[in-house]
Design goal:
Layout (H helix, E strand, L loop, with lengths): L13 H17 L5 H31 L14 H33 L3 E2 L7 H15 L5 E4 L13 E9 L7 E8 L6 E3 L7 E4 H6 L2 H4 L3 E13 L13 H12 L4 E7 L4 H10 L15 E4 L9 H4 L28 H7 L2 E5 L5 H12 L3 E8 L7 H11 L3 E6 L7 H14 L2 E3 L6 E2 L2 E9 L2 E9 L11 E8 L2 H16 L10 E3 L3 H17 L6 E5 L5 H12 L4 E5 L16 E6 L4 E2 L2 E5 L6 E5 L5 H5 L1 E7 L3 H16 L5 E4 L5 E3 L11 H20 L20
Helix pairs in contact: 1-2, 1-3, 2-3, 11-12, 12-13, 15-16, 18-19
């Protein structure tokens, strides 16, 4: 049992809170005020989120509940693992039912109205049948592999999250048993939505329906008695603690191969599948589908529509349908860099600290920071952390160029970045070949901080330039995640940055941190200390305040500190996108705490913390949420924003904009549910992300007037998939 000073009913269960976050994502798909293809996007995101939840969180609960020697511990909310599994299953079944009501009753009919049609095989006209026949012969048939399952053909291992057709067959001539169970995997290299005509007339058939119509051809000599689609989700977390390896890169590569072989944690099967077919798969995978006993729950989901709606992303970029998408936007050069007129980036940073708010501010200066350093003859060394590396990473390529140019380049690549391990391994191999000194951090700690250090010779002095961020060095996610980036040449931060890299590469310890707050060494203690300072201010009658914008609030000791602050009279405003285990507005416990969650076009990913009001405010940005793993099992950084103009921007512009959102914000109720924030009588609508876009445009307009010319943009972009990153 976890010891804490508050009662179990004062905490919300983490897993159930996460499901309520995904319910808010689903609300965006259900919202008819969103453009139609944005609704399609949110359906896909909801499905993708749920996949990861099962692969990691449900898999972990399952191990606790049923694993050999698994500890039957309680969470701060007092629930055992089996109880959590039962409640998770119940709520997930409700959400999946709502997901398919949204698809079947709202989104799909509206797609049809817009000329984007999803056809059944018996609806195809002769031209469409001819197009499908050509697709099958030219692209599908050479790839598909029909697999019979009998004593001489044992059951194949069904791959994680792959779509399969399962069929019961009856032999009418030739070889084989009289009756047979068989499967066909639908490869991801084939389109899920098979086009049946020109792009200006978007009509499709689902791949599974196209292949199902050809099952008699794939299994010649057999009649198809019945068929269904099914999909297995497996335990896919990579656990490295308590393992020894001389080569972490090789260990990660081995675990990636094992990921597809994890235990099944969920079966999705089409509604209407024969019980005989479903039972074969359930028994093969040792899944639970029992009802009636107090300890039972179901791991089987019967789906009334197409399985795996993550595939809907194929529809998002249908041409000639811009009116069905959110308006494109153009990330702009950040304030302080818009009128450089030949000034190089290092000169600009030397003069003043710079704050970037992505995606409203362009990510280009971050790329320029590394690419300029790679070419600059004055730059001697570059040190860089990399957590999630994009598929075509200009930053990684710049690091390789810098090494080839003879600079000392060190890259800390986190190989344990969940579900990006394979890409990171590939880049690590490439960088090593280019002469970059690649290190992988600690076996038992993830390196999650976002830090870049450039050492430059300026006359007789070595000067350090630092970039710190709340998000990854990934130009793709920088278009769809809200994050902050910070450039500085502050000597104390530069000294701390060097010490942090020495810690990461050589275990160098004992540094007295000047301005950075680092986990696991000091971040938890300092966070609680900052909250306690506000408690003391309130007790002595001085103005107090806590504002925190983060992705997840789970750490029960921080939650208890916030409860004590509320009891002392500290006003606390929390913007928590995802999991929140704190219960607000409990009488006598959390009366002074208000929690909202914003789910909108861009994934809210930034971490921003403010302690004390107005001129006395201490403002921090961070790579860390308030979770035990961030405090104790990761290398994280929280860094101060001290420049008066940047503090003013955060306190007078950023924070109020988030707090007045009454369009995409939801208010957390004490019971753990969320209600949309709605404007009061006569109150205008405020949508924070739209207002940030408008602020950017207003600043650009003013600059254009001042400069007597239009300010150039960096090219319009559509927001794509704000999939939920492992926070």
């Amino acid at each position: 049992m976890i010891e804490h000073s508050f009662q179990a009913e004062h905490f919300i269960n983490r897993e159930l809170s996460w499901l309520e976050f995904n319910a808010r994502v689903l609300e965006e798909a259900e919202d008819p005020s969103n453009p139609l293809l944005e609704r399609v996007k949110f359906l896909s995101i909801f499905s993708s989120n749920l996949d990861e939840f099962f692969m990691v969180r449900v898999a972990g609960l399952r191990e606790q509940a049923f694993g050999d020697g698994a500890p039957q511990d309680y969470t701060p909310d007092g629930l055992r693992a089996i109880t959590q599994l039962q409640r998770v299953a119940k709520r997930t079944q409700e959400l999946v039912a709502a997901e398919y009501r949204c698809w079947n009753e709202s989104v799909l009919p509206q797609l049809n109205q817009q000329g984007i049609r999803l056809l059944a095989h018996d609806e195809l006209n002769p031209q469409q049948r001819e197009a499908l026949d050509h697709f099958f012969r030219a692209r599908a048939f050479p790839i598909l592999t029909p697999m019979a399952i009998d004593p001489s053909h044992p059951s194949p291992h069904f791959h994680n999250r792959q779509l399969y057709l399962g069929a019961m067959l009856k032999r009418h001539h030739g070889l084989g048993p009289k009756q047979l169970f068989a499967v066909v995997q639908l490869p991801q290299i084939l389109p899920r939505f098979v086009p049946l005509g020109p792009t200006e007339d978007p009509q499709f058939i689902l791949l599974e329906q196209a292949v199902a119509a050809r099952l008699p051809e794939l299994f010649g000599g057999f009649d198809i008695l019945h068929w269904t689609t099914f999909r297995i989700t497996r335990d896919s977390d990579i656990e490295l603690l308590e393992q020894e390896s001389d080569d972490m890169l090789r260990l990660i590569e081995e675990r990636l191969k094992a990921r597809q072989r994890g235990d099944a944690v969920r079966l999705e099967v089409a509604t209407g599948a024969s019980e005989e077919l479903a039972r074969k798969i359930i028994e093969e995978e040792s899944l639970r589908d029992a009802i009636g006993s107090a300890e039972a729950y179901s791991e089987v989901y019967r789906i009334p529509g197409p399985l795996d709606l993550t595939g809907l992303m194929e529809l998002i970029e249908i041409p000639n349908r811009d009116f069905l998408r959110a308006a494109p936007f153009s990330p702009q050069a950040p304030r302080g860099l818009r009128s450089r007129r030949g000034e190089d980036l290092f000169s600009a940073i030397a003069q003043r600290d710079l704050l970037l708010h992505h995606p409203f501010d362009s990510f280009d200066p971050v790329v320029e920071f590394i690419s300029s350093a790679a070419k600059d003859p004055k730059v001697l060394a570059i040190k860089q952390t990399l957590y999630r590396i994009s598929g075509d990473s200009p930053i990684t390529r710049a690091l390789m160029q810098a090494a080839e140019n003879g600079k000392h380049v060190t890259a800390l690549v986190e190989l344990k970045a969940r579900f990006d391990e394979e890409r990171n391994v590939g880049w690590a191999r490439q960088m090593e070949r280019s002469g970059v000194h690649v290190v992988f951090g600690f076996l038992d700690l993830k390196t999650h901080c976002k830090l870049s250090l450039v050492v430059r010779q300026e006359g007789s002095v070595l000067r350090r330039y630092v970039h710190l961020g709340t998000g990854n060095y990934n130009q793709t996610t920088a278009l769809v995640y809200t994050d902050f980036g910070f450039f500085t040449a502050d000597e104390d931060i530069g000294e701390d940055a060097s010490a942090l890299f020495n810690l990461l590469t050589g275990y160098s310890q004992g540094h007295h941190w000047r301005k950075l707050v680092v986990a696991p060494e000091d971040l938890h203690r300092r966070t609680v200390e900052l909250i306690e300072e506000q408690i003391e201010r309130a007790k002595t009658g001085r103005p107090s305040r806590i504002f925190a914008k983060l992705n997840s609030l789970v750490d029960y000791r921080v939650i208890e500190s916030l409860y004590r602050a509320s009891q002392a009279g500290v006003p606390i405003e929390l913007v928590v996108r995802g999991v929140c285990c704190l219960r607000p507005a409990l009488p006598g416990i959390s009366d002074n705490i208000r929690v909202t969650s914003i789910v909108d076009r861009f994934l809210e990913h930034s971490r921003l913390y403010v302690f004390s009001p107005d001129d006395e405010a201490k403002v921090f940005l961070s790579s860390a949420d308030w979770m035990p793993r961030n405090f104790h099992r990761r290398v994280e950084v929280m860094f101060p924003i001290e420049a008066p103009d940047l503090k003013r921007r955060i306190l007078k512009e950023v924070v109020p904009t988030y707090l007045r959102d009454n369009v995409k914000a939801r208010l957390l109720k004490p019971g753990g549910t969320y209600d949309r924030v709605t404007p009061g009588p006569g109150e205008s609508l405020h949508r924070s992300q739209e207002e940030f876009l408008a602020m950017r445009d207003n600043v650009l307009d003013r600059l254009a007037v001042e400069n007597g010319a239009a300010v150039s943009d960096n090219g319009a972009a559509h927001a794509t998939v704000p999939v939920v990153e492992e926070s």
